[in-house]
Design brief:
The structure is a single chain. It contains 11 helices and 8 strands. With 281 residues, it is an alpha/beta fold. The protein has 2 domains: 151 residues, NAD(P)-binding Rossmann-like Domain (Rossmann fold); 118 residues, N-(1-d-carboxylethyl)-l-norvaline Dehydrogenase, domain 2, CATH 1.10.1040.10. β3, α3 and β4 form a beta-alpha-beta unit. The longest helix is centred in the middle third of the chain and has 29 residues. The radius of gyration is 20 Å and the shape is globular.
């Protein structure tokens, strides 16, 4: 039978803080660290201290540079006793480099990005995409299931889950961009936005993302569930992958340009639904 272990959470943003709370309520000991100190139970002074207080480390920092900085800060405190669950969206190359650094210390590494925003995290309904050895996935599964109520989906090797996560985020970015554009068209034509919403109720294009984002676009509600600057990062990862394989992605590139415009206008920390501000500001 699986024995509950100590799980360190590094990165206490929108998702990491929620995951830490779920793990505590599930009976785990949860030391935590964040670059900006927070009044969180179990807060320690450095990533190395967290590694010293836990056998499992789950990372929720923002980008490759932050992951590498954390691993450097952990240093020799990372041992063969550790499992590192890497949950940021990093792209394939950075994920493979992070895995190399972890494995070089004798520890185990799981590529485990997730999908799900603030509300899903609060309900412990994240969906994890995982890439790695079956034995490592099995070891991580009890920890991931605590916050991953929507499922844990094995997708192949380390790096493969990272690619799939980038692909799904690019799809989300392009969907919300064109949804904002068509909402602007409907309004410019003098039609109530609710008519678009009504038409989509039985339409094949309807999705969970459309149901989530369209009301917020209509209400100009840009409370952050997934920051625009993070979506820009992920779309750029998608374009990096395309260049590596010689593919042209014109729609993805259009989404990049729209997200870059939003970032330049100071909307980076708003939800990526703030793409609608191009038509309302």
């Amino acid at each position: 039978m699986f024995k509950k272990r100590r799980v360190g959470i590094i990165g206490l943003g929108i998702i990491g803080s929620q995951v830490a709370g779920h793990l505590r309520r599930a009976g785990y000991t949860v030391p935590v660290w964040n670059r900006t100190p927070k009044p969180e139970p179990g807060f320690l002074g450095t990533p190395a201290e967290v590694a010293g207080a836990a056998e499992v480390l789950q990372l929720f920092v923002a980008d490759p540079e932050a992951v590498f900085s954390v691993l450097d800060a952990i240093g020799e405190a990372l041992t063969p006793e550790h499992l590192v669950i890497c949950s940021p969206t990093l792209g394939r190359d950075a994920t493979l480099e992070a895995a190399r650094r972890v494995v070089s210390r004798g520890a185990r590494f799981l590529d485990a990005p997730f999908t799900g925003s603030r509300e899903a995290a609060a309900r412990a309904q994240l969906l994890y995409f995982v890439g790695g050895d079956e034995t490592v996935i099995a070891e991580a599964l009890p920890v991931l299931k605590v916050s991953g109520g929507k499922g844990v989906v094995p997708l192949g090797r380390v790096g493969d889950a990272a690619v799939i996560k980038v692909a799904t985020n690019v799809l989300s970015a392009a969907t919300v961009e064109v949804l904002a554009e068509m909402l602007a068209v409907v309004k410019a034509a003098g039609i109530a936005p609710e008519m678009l919403q009504k038409a989509l109720e039985g339409h094949g294009i309807r999705s969970g993302l459309v149901d989530m984002k369209l009301p917020r676009l209509m209400d100009e509600d840009y409370q952050t569930h997934f920051a625009l600057r993070h979506m820009l990062k992920d779309v750029r990862f998608g374009l990096d992958l395309a260049r590596e394989t010689g593919l042209s992605l014109p729609v993805t590139d259009a989404a990049r340009k729209a997200l870059e415009e939003g970032t330049e206008k100071g909307w980076g920390d708003l939800d990526f639904a703030a793409l609608m501000k191009r038509y309302t500001s």
